[in-house]
Amino acid sequence: MKKFLETIKNIWSIEDLRARIITTLGLLLVYRLGSYVVLPGVDSTMLEAANANNSGGGLLDLINIFAGGAFSRASIFALGIMPYISASIVIQLLGMAIPYFQRLQKEGESGRRKINQITRFLTIIITAFQAPGYIASQITTHQGVVPNDGPMWWFSTVLLLITGTMFVMWIGERITEKGIGNGISLLIMIGIVANLPSAFVFEIASRFGIGGVGGPIVLLIEVALLLFVVVLSILLVQGTRRIPVQYAKRIVGNKQYGGVRQYIPLKVNAAGVMPIIFAQAIMFIPLTLAGFGEGGVTSWFVTTFSNPNSFAYNLTFALMIIAFTYFYTAVTVNPNQMADEMKRNGGFVPGIKPGKKTAEFIDNVMSRITLPGSIFLALVAILPAFAMLGGVNQAFAYFYGGTSLLIMVGVILDTLQQIESHLLMRHYDGLMKTGKIKGRSSTGMGMAG
Fold this sequence. Notes:
mainly alpha, Preprotein translocase SecY subunit, 5 strands, globular
């Protein structure tokens, strides 16, 4: 405890780090307060009553978790940062296939600014398409929620939702630039964490309240299992396979360069949380099709794949995550480029010929470690369904795995890494006794920033 208090004192004594932390907390507070500002013309009391009578389904609850509750409250931040995430994913995919975006990625800072500008414009377009759909499906569909829903109200509400999303994006960028951690990832995480206290209170009430089942023993077991899953998720995030690389000796003047052994850390989960996001986006399609077709095969398909607890949903979800993990890893990790850079710098893997043989070796290693990594990622993604089957309430079960847990673990570890870097740079002890937190190099579990 004394060590912890001393670390907090060291953090607060660094002026730059203190200013960054205060800026981050202030901007996150603005985001949370904005999530409670209801759109003009919406009767919040009627909307709350309508939401209470209509559970909305598991997928809508999942969307609401990412928005920190703003989605169900019809807030000005109802669409949150997700349109920006969607735009970033689109730009990232375009960078894999279109030469123009590939050139921008190689142009350094100027190319990055152009990509950010394009991403912002694409965010506006995506939000402009999502906003009317959100209004029609979640607000005006309830009687009495909007007393006067004329054309002017529609126009102003769509404009407000677009403005809200752009303001949230601006908050995320300011946190990244002036604060601590990755701003976009922190906004997603704070929205997820905001639901944890109420979900835990509901779980306690279900165990100790009137008609409660299980009592304190079951609650303690649930908390212990949650901590165990968190530890496993940390292992998944930090797990690496180190490939030794030997560099040839070079003598320049009176100095010797190279001749040392270094390591290439290949992450077990190089794709981060992106496979779950891609798979989840596709699993939202049945919810979109819910309004089309009645009865027969269409009705069975929509009913089955709109239920996150069904066997078919979770099996399909897990297989898609495994496939997307291989796809995203193949796109982000380029063995040929790694082999060429090693050869150019006089490095080689012991026992492996430089060049093509090294690329094949790295590719084989990545294929082997990606399989268990993808399977484990799929298991973590479907754990909430098992938790709900075990009697855990739906809100609390979402923290047992899936995108929520992985994003929280990745963002928290990355933020701690940045804080520790500030401490070590000024010759303070790190957050851990060893003075170094190992295994963390990804930013926000691959989330776009």
